[in-house]
Structure formats: structure tokens, C-alpha cells
Amino acid sequence: MHMHWKVCPWVSDAKATNARASAARLLDQVVSGRRSLNEVLKIGLQNIADGRERALVQELAYGTLRWYYQLDALLQCLLNKPLKKRDSDLRCLVLSGLYQLARMALPSHVAINETVQAARVLDKAWATGLVNAVLRGYQRRKPQLEADIGDSAAALYAHPGWLIERLVQDWPDDWETILWAGNQRPPLSLRVNQQQTTRPDYLALLQREGIKAAPLAHTLHGIKLEVPVPVDALPGFDTGLVSVQDAAAQLTAGLLELAPGLHVLDACAAPGGKTAHILETEPGLASVTAIDIDERRLRLVEDNLARLGLAARVLHADAAEPASWCDGESYERILLDVPCSATGVIRRHPDIKLLRRPADISSLVSRQAQLLSAMWPLLPAGGMLLYTTCSVLADENERQTARFLEDHPDAVEQKIAVSWGRPCACGRQILPGEDDMDGFYFACMRKQL
Which neighbouring-strand residues pair with 336? Predict the structure, then answer.
């Protein structure tokens, strides 16, 4: 078996040892504590002032999680006996050391020495010899180790075995492409706020700032950066000229067939990117109501709208219980972007590989069905509900909507006639990486007159 060990350039610096220890602690919170990477990075990076040190922590955290199943298989071959549970932070440090050797364009002696020293920062001075032996063992035996783990699908594709099996079932011709796409670095895609500027004007502004970018296919206001930059480096970000949003998510507003005078409900709105895009697309809407069950994430909706100079009715509410917040209102357009496995955005959130479990899928499918049934009565005759997920699993997508149509005689699918994605038995699917987009599913359903 031959593995393609891709590399990325990196620069070492004096604070690199601390960065490696910080990354190991954060990784341990994800791997052992089952917390989201976004959450632990947000807190963990607060006390790191140096920009390059922060960047190294992020690179090690994202990269180690992206290739976790491969790195873990290598580590098992290299250890004489498993590390104790109490040394889970040390285990994460060693995994990140293997990531540096396998996939970062670092001098190997730098990667090894600084990872060994980071064990001291973790108060594991006793383990410096072990860390050194494991990393040098990988260096010495790399071709043989790659061959040894080649029979494991999880190691080869760097995804959990249960998910590989699901993808083989759902996408017999595309599962390998989906898996490899999940291991790539995602592009940074932007959505220009058409109420403030135009895509050509913003592209010109980026060019003046020395930021290389190009229009995103299939979108009216999307832009892809050649090389990602921090959001605070984007001209006009703070004043609402532009938002960060994947190309696939940007297709949502266009599918809603918005028009002046309509009442629109975004039923699972946080963090608010699609709510904002709806308002940017059609300023003449009669009303936009954005609800979410997560009060903490709902604040992100309010922050996004404020930054963009937009206004909507924002409610902390459970979309599955409309009687508690909806006083007889109806909405001609309902966007139902349901909680899902997020298996279409793994390249963007590699922690999903570890955090998502097989049992989660059935509970998510139940919740999605509950939300669909709860939303449908709020739609008047002739109105449209747009069901979306960032999943690639049929149970959450075409099987879910097909079952809903079967159970609701007054619901009819409105075919999505576009050039992107691929048609399903019901709805349309974009697979991860297609035209630089995340994996997304869309289904439009009309209530018959």
C-alpha cells in the first residue's frame, strides 16, 4: 500500500515547545473530554498573544484530529504497551509529534526535540525518553509501518470504521471521494453583503489589500480566497461588507424564492449566516423570524445581524414546540436547517470524526422528523419549506424527506433545477469538495393549495 503523505510548510520559533504542550492539552479535551474543537480553541487560545504560536497550536490541533485514525494506528504499532488513561495528554502530544513528522514540512530534528521538551511542560519529564523513542521509531520504520496499518480502512482513510461502512452503503460509487475530501483543508469562502457592496467591488478591494481571491461558482455573491486569512484581516469585515460562509450554504437563500411582502421563518437559525443572507437577498420581506433552542448560540445570530446592519425577530425557542412561541402566525417560507451528523463538513470540523457516534444518527433522524412535522402546520397553502442538512447520510436526507412526503398528502416535492450537486430520490445532494463546496443536502416542499 502506498500512502500519499502530503506536507504543509511550517516555521519553528522559540515558543514552539509551549505551543506543542498547549495543543496536546486542547487535543486531550476533544479526544478524552469529548468537547468540540471550536469550543476548546476559543478558550485555549485566549492566553496566547503571539500570532505564530497561536497558528502552530491551531495547525497541530486541526491536523492531528484530521489524521487521528491513521496516527493512532501508527502509535499502536510503535508502543510496547498502551499509555495509561491518566496520561491521555501525553498520548495526544505523541500523536501530534507523529503528525509533524508525517505531514508538516518541518526539519525532523526540530519536530522531535521540541515535542520531547513539551513533555516536560506537561509535567511528564519521565516520558521524554518514551516520546523520543516513539518518534525516532516512526522515522526509522516509516515504510514498514505504513504497510502494517494498510489493512485497516479506518487508518487508510483516516475516518472511523462505522462511518466508512455507512458511506459505502449510501454512496457505493463515491464513498472514497467523500472520504478523501474529508481529509482536505477547506477553503475560506466569503459572502459579499449585497446591501452594502458588489462582488466585483469587493474583489477589487481585496486585490488592493494584496489578498488573492476569485468568484465562487454557482453563487451570486460568493468569493474564495486563494489562501485563508484571519477575519480581522478582511477589509470591511467589522462594518458588515462581507461574511464567512461556505459556497453550499450560500445556495440556500436563492432556493427560497424570496419576494417582497413574505413572512419568513428560519427555524434553527444559529449562528445566523443563512438568516443574514435571507435579509441581504430581499430587504422587502414583511418579516424574518429567527429561532434557536441554544440560547448561547442565539447570541451569535444577534451579533452577526448587528455587524451586518440587519434586523430580524430573534427568539430563544424550540422549533419542535411551536405552541410555546408561535401565536397563530404562518410563514410563506420556512427554512429548516436541521441538527444533523455534520458528515458533510468534516474537512472543516475534523473533530466530528471522533465526536460523532453511530447511535447519534438514529436520535438525529428522530429529531429531524419531529421538527419537520412541527413546522409543516405553520406553512400556509402554497407556501414552501426548504429542508437542509450538512450531512451526506441518506437516513438524514433523501430517506427523511421521502418519508415525510409519504406521511403528508398535502406536501409535494418541488424539484430543484440547477447545475450543481446531484439529484436524489427526493431533493439534491452536494458531496464534500464538489466545486469547492461543503457537503450539503436540500429539499424543497410545497404545501398544496
Answer: 387
Name the burial class of residue 1, with classes exposed (0-12), middle (13-18) and buried (19+) by CB atoms within 10 angstroms of its CB.
Answer: exposed
Report the distance separating Cα 155 and Cα 380, nearest Å: 50
With a cut of 80, say whether residue 5 has pLDDT above it: no
The set of residues, in sequence order, having a beta carbon less than 8 Å from that of 153 and lying 6+ positions away, is: 161, 164
Q: What is the amino acid identity at position 378?
A: L
Average pLDDT over residues 145-155: 96
Q: Where are the beta strands (DSSP E) in 293-421?
A: 313-316, 333-337, 384-389, 411-414
Name the residue among 193, 340, 342 with its Cα closest to residue 278. 193
Residues with Cβ within 8 Å of 224's Cβ and at least 6 positions away in sequence, in order, are 187, 188, 189, 190, 213, 214, 215, 216, 247, 436
Give domain 189-244's CATH architecture: 2-Layer Sandwich (3.30)
| % residues pLDDT > 90 (the chain) | 94
Q: Do 178 and 218 touch, CB atoms closer than 8 A?
A: no
Fold adopted by 247-447: Rossmann fold (3.40.50)
Mean of pLDDT values over 73-94: 97
What residues are annotated to the active site?
390
Question: Quick count: other Cβ atoms within 10 Å of Cβ 102?
Answer: 21
Helix (H), strand (E) at residue 234: none
Q: Are 249 and 216 in contact (CB under 8 A)?
A: no
* Domain ranges within the chain, ordered by starting residue: 8-152, 189-244, 247-447
